[in-house]
Specification:
Mean pLDDT: 89
Distance between the termini: 38 Å
Number of helices: 7
Oligomer: single chain
Structural class: alpha/beta
Strand content: 15-25%
Helix content: 40-55%
Radius of gyration: 18 Å
Low-confidence stretches: 163-170
Shape: globular
């Protein structure tokens, strides 16, 4: 879909959050939801270690799909974090994480990347994110969004609905999944509407503009949204 550019977006996403602490013994607790492959969790751990010399940060990685989690576990076996308390894997539903496993006011950072548009009840996801974060905790979402530049929007629309399903047919023999992908992106709320949903869930967000409540990437092909739990 993004021709590999999503890796750069994920790098920028994590760099924006600056996870970890330079204080010895300070444990930063993160939860990465819909993150089965481990892309974001691994970047968070690497950033904390490389930029802040932090080996105390922990990530709970949550995904509704056990097979995706297995891929993430397989990937982590090749890293220095395997077998350490820094990462744990959980099968869970973003819309109802459950208070027993994921208590209120537990996490400093909540991340969800390219997953929230597949949830049937986005407000429920946002409410759960607010519940599990500590006061002062940060909600961060990376998702495909609405292109804001008219010329680019026209080209992107043509590419999405003509080229991507065709590539899915040729490369994977699965046109339907790729068609769903582009349709789910089209249905996802605009940057302003999604920012309002985050605010309605109880988060404090910035001004409703690029560089405020959200940051557009590549003209709005994707966007990073953040919010802070104030109470």
């Amino acid at each position: 879909m993004s021709m590999g550019v999503h890796r750069l977006w994920k790098d920028e996403f994590v760099s924006l959050l600056k996870p970890g602490s330079t204080r010895v013994g300070k444990v930063t607790r993160c939860i990465d939801v819909a993150g089965g492959t481990g892309d974001i969790a691994l970047r968070i751990l690497d950033y904390a270690r490389e930029k802040k010399a932090d080996r105390d940060l922990v990530v709970d990685l949550v995904d509704i799909n056990p097979e995706m989690l297995k891929e993430g576990q397989k990937r982590f076996r090749k890293t220095m974090y395997h077998g350490t308390p820094q990462v744990a894997f959980h099968v869970g539903n973003a819309q109802e994480l459950g208070q027993e496993r994921f208590p209120d006011n537990t996490y400093d950072i909540y991340t969800i990347a390219f997953g929230i548009r597949n949830c049937t009840d986005i407000p429920a996801v946002l409410r759960e994110a607010h519940r599990v974060l500590k006061p002062g905790g940060v909600f961060a979402c990376l998702e495909f969004s609405k292109v804001t530049q008219p010329a680019l929007a026209s080209m992107y629309e043509s590419y999405s609905f003509s080229v991507i399903p065709l590539l899915g047919t040729i490369m994977a023999g699965d046109r339907a999944s790729y068609q769903y992908l582009v349709e789910s992106i089209r249905r996802f709320p605009s940057q302003e509407d999604f920012s309002r949903m985050i605010s309605d869930a109880g988060f404090e967000v910035g001004e409703p503009e690029d560089g405020g409540a959200w940051r557009n990437l590549w003209g709005g092909i994707s966007a990073i949204h953040t919010g802070v739990k104030v109470a």
